Amino acid sequence: MPNRAEKLRNKPDSREPQPASQEQPAVVATLAKPPGKTTRAPRKRPVPAAERAVLAPTARIKFGREVCGNLEAGEAREWLVTNGIGGFASGTVADCVTRRYHGLLVAALHPPVGRTQLVTGLDEVVRYAGTEGLLATHQWASGAVDPKGFLNIESFRLDGMTPVWTYALADALLEKRVSMRHGENTTYVEYTLLRSSSAVELEFKALVNYRDFNGSTHAGDWRMKIDPLEDGVQVVAFDGATTFYLNCAGATCEPRHEWYRNFYLPVEKERGLDDREDYLFAALFRTKLKVGSSVTFVATTEADAGLDGARVRAENADRDAKLFESWRVDNQKGVAESPNWLPQLVLAADQFIVKRSLPQHPDGRSIIAGYHCFGDWGRDTMIALPGLTLATGRADVARQILLAFAEYVDGGMLPNNFPDGGGSPVYNSVDAALWFFEAVRQYFAATKDGRTLLQLFPALGEMIDAHVKGTRYNIHVDPADGLLYAGEPGIQLTWMDAKVGDWVVTPRTGKAVEVNALWINALETMAEFARLLARPGGGYEKLSAKAQKNFQKFWNEDRGCCFDVIDAPGVGNDAALRPNQLLGVSLPVSPLTEEQQKSVVDCCAQHLLTSYGLRSLAPGEPGYQGDYAGGPKDRDAAYHQGTVWGWLLGPFVLAHLRVYGDRSEAMRFLEPLGISVHMYGLGTLGEIFEGDPPFTPHGCIAQAWTVGEVLRAMRELQNYRES
Fold first, then answer.
1. What confidence tens digit (pLDDT) does each residue in 572-587 have?
2. Would you say 338 and 714 are in contact if contact means Cβ atoms under 8 Å apart?
3. Distance of CA 507 to the CA centre of its chain
């Protein structure tokens, strides 16, 4: 059954609530708002376009030669540009490919999935004043580094989320920036001559590919079809392949067909995967630049894509400014006291939101769990949604996501993931559905959108009914205590879902602590919704009261914290110290006493908290692994056995706030993770870190629930008023 690590791999009991009626009660009229008008409060004065550029965060992340001229430092920092439909471009500050996911055009051929690497990069040469400067950097399987274009990089910065390099060649200064058009599989590489005493000649070779973004190419005698066009070439990799285009207005173009073999990918070497690849030199472009002039290379799957890089740059700048404005208007008090890394995360949040069209919802949206390798996952989407959308003033997007996912409810469950190669969604998550309740609760709290609540209520009722009756993988409510049980041999159902072959690393079969905290909150949410919609809700209240009373079974008096799992087959109660119990404190309804809440927070702070998140298992526990290294089996074995997860900092901070009521202290916990936008994934927040100091980052360079939980926590902290 697919899991996150492999992506790197009858009638209800009469006492319980019945499925909701479709009739609209009169009370809804006082709550309902038209779809699309779901903002928290009336909008303030719109900010004129001329002011947006001042408000939008730009150039907060910048490096000089101390990083750019050091290959190790430059290749350790990665940039990411996305297109809103699942496609992306990504690389390093050193402009050197280090992993299989790097490329100028990784197109989503079946949005938001079907990601396919089409264009890897450009090999550029600048001729000026009788000298020749190389801009590209390549590492080869032989151990050679040639050319060494990183030595010519004077600076690198992010303009919003757009990577911008300046290359210094004598007195000439050449700027290069990479962007994508929103909603298209189109990448623009724009070169501008900022300074020189005469014109420069620019030549670049386009290196292409055609493979699944998780794969690698060893070309053999593969021959692609490359045909000339007015401003470039079109490429057909094989019969039935999607045609793509390489264009550059104002440049000459020569079609070519030469395989460059045995590029070395050092990150893949570290991951124990295929670390060599071949790329096809498909076209040679030549042009001249005068001071102040620009030229743009365009890689696209669109036959009629626009070739004006300046226009796309302006479109993207305006989009960024509008995103920032939405956040500013919806967070008027919080903006003034926000740390300087927070506006950058507002822009980073948008990179995860993608279009997922459905017949019933052509404007449906979803959330990519992480870049580079994840698609849209149900659990990740619901955890990340409040921070990525509600905390950034984009409630309309939250609504589109919730309505789209409601169409996929099956057997009371939400999909765990949508396979990147297409096909049916996979339902192997016990908590995705429960996080859906929490996302809907937060959406309604922010918008009071009764019309959307009325649309979602039947699906929510179906989910509760299915869990009471029992659904896949032995997921069912234990009638004896009202708690939720889940699991079968060989199946991983919680967020700790690593599996190596037939070995489930953290099976957590039984009654998991965070699952039952979510279950109780889902019941409480349904009881409140039923009251608002004038529907029967007594069954939800009774079951919640029963589950809350019996949640005390999780309390481990000896350790002063919660068991991670109770009633586990052959184990009984699992006393391993993990962070999952924090949800029993951070969620709105806590089934723990105030004394127990404080004990949980203190225990997690002392044994699990790090600068960048919480360890998934405490040091000293059996099976703890403080490093995250080696091949897939080694890394999967460590994934939830001590590895630090950034997203857990959100629940920890809010649990700490609940217990101690100290907003300033709670905010300070977020600062180290916030300023990490300057390392690893630039302008965004990554997935995981090693459990032992110095907590080296690994995994996805940009992770939706990490960014989302930091934004959500900051929003709640800024809105908190100390008594």
1. 999 999 999 999 999 9
2. yes
3. 25
